[in-house]
Queue: 2 jobs
Job 1
Amino acid sequence: MPKQKFEHPHARRRTLSDPLTAALLPPPDESQVERENRLKAERDAKTVSDSIDELIRIERNEKKKNKAEVNVLLLGQSESGKSTTLKQFQLLHSPSAFHAERIAWRAVIYLNLVRSVRRILDALAPEETLDEHDDDDSTETASVIITSDGRPPSAILGTRVSNYETYRRKLEPLAELEDRLIRLLSSPDEDEPTRLDPAYQNWEQYTRPPRPNENIPPPMNVNGRPAPTIKIPHKTQTPSSAGIRSAGPGPSISQKNEVVVHTSTNWKKVFALGNKSKSPKSPLSGEIEGWWEDPDDPVHTLHACAGTMQELWRDPQVKKRLQEKRIRLEESSGFYLDEIHRITAKKYIPTDPDVLKARLKTMGVIEHTFSIPSGSNRGVEWRIYDVGGARNQRQAWAPYFEDVNAIIFLAPISVFDQVLAEDPRVNRLEDSLILWRSVVSSKLLANVNIVLFLNKCDLLQAKLEAGVRLSHHMVSYGDRPNDYDSVSKYFRNKFGVIHQSYTPNKERELYIHFTAVTDTRRTAVIISSVRDIIIKGNLRNMRLV
Ligand SMILES: Nc1nc2c(ncn2[C@@H]2O[C@H](COP(=O)(O)OP(=O)(O)OP(=O)(O)O)[C@@H](O)[C@H]2O)c(=O)[nH]1
Ligand SMILES: [Mg+2]
């Protein structure tokens, strides 16, 4: 089961400047005898404390020798595929837990579908009904495309969809459903991203493009840094505090920002059972059954709207309008519009690929533990940390650098024509390159094995085949061929050169894989090879081989 990390182990260490240490200072009017007694008592206490420390150290070393442990960090920008990679690890190493949870993913899949429909309706809306920000779809997901001059395409003149009003009216119930799903998925007592001590603010600064004339300090000071403490504030959550822009009066169908659910929330449990704990369970899978009898279940609204959703998605005028606005929903996260009838069926249970496609932004850091047998070893405990990749989440990464053995860095390479959801001025590929540079150049991570997943290769191939030219977005690509082989090699080279130039450890070998982490068969093969690499590297570091 996922475990939320609230406090790093070193958080308990105190520094001389802390208030407790100050409070323990001797009284200023201490006599000579008192002073000698105190010093003796302190020496005795120190001897006892040192011997306890020594015992702990020996015990820890013994443990390390007897039980191999591997800590792996999944890093990369938002929507790079970190959580999807974690799901693949789960599917491989604890399939029963993965399957037990899949019914809960129904809520996320429904929400992904409803929001895709809303994006279409927003894109079709006559311009005068949208406010200034509504035209800027870039706040929604990374599927918004920028033109080669870096600006979203103009949407002023374009195809009018004759059935727009009918679609909007018939799909109105989805607005209320969206609100309900968001409420279901959101925790009642969390509303802010994980925050860190100011000591770690540097990392965030280091992982964004520098401002002009800004001197960015090295990401981390290895020695003597204050202990990190992750604080999760508890407040009451409202839809607007969850990062969802209020639509004002009228349907919330114009709400924009991506739904974020803190990893500590219990949404899986809530949605898996809800008020249905008395519902029958399947004798085969043990999964809840019979939710379709519950008139309040979201499936009914979706089922009733399925026909209209299908008409909307298939309408040639709609397709044209989306094309004019360069919105390619097929490439965006959580795309289920090609399977409306299956997804909205009353007895729908998400399949493995459905769960892998489901999009829920990570906030905070989530830890998964697996015991993975490895050759003659009796089992290695793997701790995999999945972090939030959005800009405001990256400051939470640093405390995990200290004990990490390996990093799997995900860089989606299909995103060369897209902008960051959190900052539409920044090209997503540029952001990945900057982030990559900051990770590989970190001295703190110098001895950490690094595996690079050049991800979303399936989307890259489709994009290139659709005629999108890399050179329009990356001038340095020049007039090289715009086919998958040439482009993927170019990216491999680009990331490889950055590692070569910036790594503080010239001995470190970099392992690069072209991946599509939604593809289970391909990813399983890659994961097992990555596992071997990490184990070997780890044993080498532990000087056991
Ligand atoms: N087609 C395709 N989709 C992918 C691939 N990798 C990830 N996705 C999808 O992209 C979306 C985002 O993936 P996530 O795993 O949630 O991304 P993340 O890196 O965890 O993002 P944050 O939690 O915001 O940091 C999901 O809907 C995935 O199903 C891929 O290789 N190909
Ligand atoms: Mg994630």
Job 2
Amino acid sequence: MALSFIKKVFTFGKEKPAEEQAPEASQTKVLEAEPGPHSHEEHLPLASDPAFPEQLDIAGAAPAADAVEPSEDAEDAAILPAAYQIGDLGVIPLSLLEAEAEAEPETPAKETPTAKTPPSVSSGDQAADEAPVFDASHDEVTDIRPEEISGAAEEGQTVPPQPISLLGGETPGGVAEDAPLRDADGEDASKTQPLLPKGFATTAKTTEAEPIAPYPKLTWFQRLRAGLARTSSQLTGQISALFTKRKLDDDTLQDLEDLLIQADLGVETAMRVTDTLASERYGKDVTGEDVSRIMASEIAKVLKPVAKPLQLDLTHKPHVILVVGVNGTGKTTTIGKLAAKLSGAGLKVMVAAGDTFRAAAIEQLKIWADRTKSEFIGTKLGADAAGLAYDAFEQAKAKKCDVLIIDTAGRLQNKAELMAELEKIVRVLGKLDPDAPHTVLQTLDATTGQNALNQVEIFRNIAGVNGLIMTKLDGTARGGILVAISAKHKLPVYFIGVGEGVDDLEPFEAEDFAHAIAGLGQ
Ligand SMILES: Nc1nc2c(ncn2[C@@H]2O[C@H](COP(=O)(O)OP(=O)(O)OP(=O)(O)O)[C@@H](O)[C@H]2O)c(=O)[nH]1
């Protein structure tokens, strides 16, 4: 029966018109079936699912009417396990097998004890009893008894189970060397052949992937340097050009000041640099390197007072961190990264999906919560964010969480609404603890430049921002703006985001940042 089952797999839908043979037709049916004995979930257990073996029994049971059309004989009634029906491969039409069989003489496959041609159909009526059996790891279909496969082995000889092959002609490793896989039109399908899941093999000629040399992971400073390369190379290039064979005079100082302002560093910092340069080198020859050094030192002086660790008052249970900022600046991602750091350090963290305007934001935070083993609280789309914040605070207290981090929406398009919402969140949290939220963090996207200055102004007024995190400093960042913001607002800068990964959040270091902007080493 096993072979007839395979034939069933391979011929499923063959009699139907071409368009109906598309995998979609058979897949949709199963996927859309009501949950039941043959629902999608039951057919696709995780390999590690302990329930997996029992579920496999289903494949040998009578077919569910809603899953597969009943067919003429009992053998044909075997339900195709979903593993065959869905996924990129879909159902393999018999024409493929026939094409392969025709192609066989031209493409002799290696001598192998395994099948060279599709299995012949065995007779027998053990259909229902001999449903395919998957091993626990879902690696192989072991119901294909090699002795039933033509040319497989001598009668009675035991041949270890082989990975199921879409076409014959396997090498012992499971992949034939020469036989091209043909699609229904007789075309070499190797170009379109998808990557096969584990446990499948194909005769399609596959190009061996070049072994990929392990890519050295850049240090965070290298990523910061790379992210700030645009700012720094533009600056240093222009500075070198400015000071080539020129003594330091009023004109060059003015030009330098303009350059620094254009790089978003702000008037105040630009003047600090030119004043220091003038006091040290006026009337003398100056190199671009001299200027870069002085620039780095002056920038570091601006940044040092704001480069502070994020203070957690763990006498509060929880310490509440409200995260605000324009949408897309990296709030949710940063919350995930913070949660990872905190829970990694053994603190109990809860994250609250207060951005109730975007379903994806709630989902995204839930994923981060799972990933960082944090408690999660969310509500339905469009629900009152302040109500969620209140519930989150109560639950975090009840669960004795150390830290509660609340995500918020950031649509500046509707400033009045946003303002009202954030104010309400702060007010409501204050009812449970007059000091809450204990930290109001604003995320700033380093690629936005000057606009970030206005964003701080707005959110500081709305939500009482008392700390900053600049994200996306690994991209084509315009990091100069952080210097201008620091000079103006003097708000602590706790961390910088240097990538999308969970570990890509670094404590803010004034010297390193200043050096990266000036194009100097760490
Ligand atoms: N390269 C890079 N990408 C980042 C960084 N931080 C966040 N991102 C990406 O920026 C995009 C927006 O991040 P989110 O965390 O969704 O931003 P958000 O502020 O929560 O956005 P809304 O939910 O729309 O308000 C995502 O694609 C993040 O992966 C970073 O430090 N570097």
